[in-house]
Write a structure and sequence with these properties.
about 400 residues, alpha+beta, Porin, 60s Ribosomal Protein L30, Chain: A, 18 strands, elongated
């Protein structure tokens, strides 16, 4: 672009002199000074900057749960689900409303007795995203850990196993509940999102729930709380945009380029293509396996002769051919040579100097036409010599 501006400035300086100034004629080889051009440019003063956009998100998770008790670890495991709807206030702070649960499992040691019950635990939680507190945090980072704490209420129901156990097996549940019961609790946890796209992330989470001592129907020592733990994996969907970018800011700068000295060069002569140099063409047809000129081809030859006589600087290129459907390569090469020779001798007999004739024999290696009978031919192409040197440029 800058080179084009310079060229336009040079042309304007040479062709459009200012009013009232003397017009100076320049010749090839003269050196002239061109004043510097005024150039306008855009300079970046503020690049685009990413910024956070508050947004909603949805989390779906599943995994396993463990209820603290006297039995072996594997005997107290149960499945767990969690659905959460959250709102991200900033890079480092969000809140969510979660609903988790499915069922819980525990075991009475003596007499040995296992039992299950169902529960749903809604909770409200505040979440901290520590990487968001960093000044140069990249919101596109793959690993995004978080911590959270909250309060909730476990709605428990379906405690029939424990009720039947107390009646049938004589199990003494000190805090047995029937029908359904609410258990307030506190919740703490840690997790991480693993970013896949702007809208989707994998999530891994572990949480601990401290519930009232009635949760598992057993009385804890000193009425200690019951503990329910979850290990979850799932996906997080971002609703809407989570980040945007500011528009870059530019300012216009005007500057004067340095002047330049130019030597006026002699224009180079235009090089003619073969098509531009071609002035006349004619095809002289022959009979199969013959090279003598037929009477019906004399009108074409007379037209060729007349053009060469009217244009003494032009020259003719004669190319003989034979069709490959007959004969063999050796015979066809000889025949094509004789055909171009016959046309050359006819022109020389009419007074055309041999130096203006170029002869070629192509045999059957080249078939310029589609039909076999059309390739029994000598093509006659008339060209003008190079205008600068006077030399013939087409030698093959």
């Amino acid at each position: 672009m800058k080179k084009r501006l310079k060229l336009l400035w040079i042309v304007a300086s040479l062709v459009l002199p200012l009013q009232g100034q003397e017009v100076v004629t320049v010749q090839a080889g003269d050196t002239i000074t061109i004043p510097g051009a005024v150039v306008e440019e855009q300079r970046l003063i503020a690049p685009e900057v990413p910024f956070f956009v508050p947004h909603w998100y949805l989390t779906l998770q599943g995994g396993g749960a463990y209820d603290l008790g006297e039995a072996d670890f594997s005997q107290l495991l149960s499945p767990s689900l969690q659905v959460a709807l959250g709102y991200q206030f900033s890079e480092w702070l969000s809140a969510r409303f979660a609903v988790s649960g499915l069922w819980a499992r525990n075991r009475y040691v003596y007499p040995e007795f296992k039992y299950e019950w169902k529960f749903i635990q809604p909770s409200l939680e505040l979440m901290l995203h520590p990487l968001g507190l960093l000044k140069n945090h990249d919101h596109n980072s793959f690993f995004n850990p978080y911590l959270f704490a909250g309060v909730g209420m476990a709605y428990s129901f379906g405690n029939d196993d424990a009720v039947d156990g107390s009646k049938i097996h004589g199990v003494r549940f000190r805090k047995l509940w029937t029908d359904s019961k609410l258990h307030p609790g506190l919740r703490l946890g840690i997790g991480s999102d693993f970013r896949l796209t702007d809208q989707l992330a994998l999530t891994v989470e572990a949480n601990a729930n401290m519930l009232s001592d009635h949760f598992n129907s057993k009385k804890g020592k000193n009425d200690n709380s019951d503990w329910h733990f979850n290990a979850l994996v799932g996906v997080r969907f971002t609703i809407g945009k989570s980040h945007g970018k500011t528009e870059p800011q530019y300012e216009r700068v005007t500057r004067m380029e340095e002047g330049m000295k130019v030597v006026v060069a002699k224009p180079e002569p235009a090089v003619q293509t073969e098509e531009q140099m071609l002035r006349f063409k004619v095809n002289i047809q022959f009979v199969i396996n013959r090279s003598d000129i037929r009477r019906n081809q004399l009108s074409k030859l007379n037209n060729l002769l007349r053009y060469l006589q009217q244009h003494p600087n032009a020259y003719v290129r004669l190319s003989g051919y034979a069709d490959r459907e007959t004969g063999n390569a050796q015979i066809n090469m000889r025949l094509s040579r004789e055909r171009s020779q016959a046309v050359s001798e006819w022109l020389q007999d009419q007074g055309i100097d041999e130096s203006r004739i170029r002869r070629y024999a192509k045999g059957d290696t080249v078939q310029p036409f589609d039909l076999p009978e059309e390739n029994r031919v000598t093509t006659c192409y008339v060209y003008n010599p190079d205008e600068e040197s006077g030399e013939w440029k087409l030698d093959n």
